[in-house]
Amino acid sequence: MDSMAAIEIDGLSKDYGSVLANDSLELRVEDGEIFGYLGPNGAGKTTTIRMLLGFIKPTSGTARVLGHDIRDEKALIEAKREIGYLSDEPGFDEQATGTEILDLHASVKGDSRSDELLELFDPPLDRTIREYSRGNVQKLGLVTTFMHDPELVILDEPTSGLDPLMKQRFAEFLRSERDSGVTIFFSSHILSEVRRLCDRVGIIRQGRLVTVEPIETLLMKSGKTVRLSSRTPIPDDLLAIDGISDLETSSPGGTESGAAGSDDGFTECAFTFTGDINELVRTLPEQDLLDCSIEEAPLEDVFMQFYGGESDA
């Protein structure tokens, strides 16, 4: 039997007339996974989230959140008892202190975890929100999001304003939440964040989902970035192995070449490789190599495969 889907989206669309913000989305987010919703600003991520939470009504289609239809207002209110949500702009009352914000949230939805979360994220509770930095607003927002121990957490650009140390702490916290059975759906345009955190990722472009993949599959499709530096010319047959693309070679003087190289000194080349890495490695001992690196291709390259350099701003 299939595991429960925390979120099921079925033909969900939002048409503002001049902009089709979401176009017939189909998506299933499984219970207990971290799902990354990836796309640049303006691609339609926040619109999806706002429909899932009932803040705006879909033009067509629907979705179920924790088994509740988003078109059923009473059912969605019931579901929200088990949902944590962090907006990309939390919008706290600037005159209130952090303590007052927490007290308000506790009165509405309960508070079983704030001590633990305050120790982890440490926002300055005695200050008013207008004195907060962007990072402190985000840290307080994370506390309010998780304080009632929700089953499903929806996060819109959750690391905005956090320093690198706090981002790492947040990543470890999210993984531990996932391991305890919490489902996490978060939108982001930060590719390294998605790589570090997600089990699966969906890429949205101009309101349409262009792919939904396990993160490992997405990275596999992008291949490896290979750089070779050889004391002797690199033969053409090595560079003709299936799976090599975007080949760049240079002679010792730095002259770019489409061929193997020169007859004196070393030759350098770099390429993307999507073939059998073992076949490539077997050919390397035949070369008098000075250096060799085989690395996972940057997730930015994966992203550009689906965006083709165009902007959705």
Protein architecture, described:
By secondary structure, the chain is α/β, with parallel strands linked by helices. It has 2 domains: 213 residues, 3-Layer(aba) Sandwich (Rossmann fold), CATH 3.40.50.300; 73 residues, no CATH class. It is built from 10 helices and 15 strands. It has a 6-stranded mixed beta sheet, sandwiched between helices. A 5-stranded antiparallel beta sheet has the order 13-12-14-11-15. Strands 2-1-4-5 form a 4-stranded antiparallel beta sheet, with helices on one face. The two termini are 42 Å apart. About 4% of the residues have low confidence.
| Beta-strand percent range | 25-35%
Which structural class matches the secondary elements? Answer: alpha/beta
Q: What is the overall silhouette?
A: elongated
What is the H/E order?
EEEHEEHEHHHEHEHEEHEEEEHEH
User: Could you tell me the number of beta strands?
Assistant: 15
Residue runs with pLDDT of under 50 for 5 or more positions? 255-265
Calculate the terminal CA-CA distance, rounded to whole Å.
Answer: 42 Å
Put simply, the count of helices is: 10
- Tell me the name of the CATH class of the largest domain: Alpha Beta
- Label the CATH architecture of the largest domain: 3-Layer(aba) Sandwich
CATH fold naming of the largest domain? Rossmann fold
What's the CATH H-level superfamily name of the largest domain? P-loop containing nucleotide triphosphate hydrolases
**In the residues, how many domains can be counted?**
2
Radius of gyration from the CA trace? 24 Å
Spatial order of strands in the largest sheet: 6-7-8-3-9-10
Q: What's the story with the biggest beta sheet?
A: 6 strands, mixed
Please state the average pLDDT score: 87
Helix percentage: 25-40%
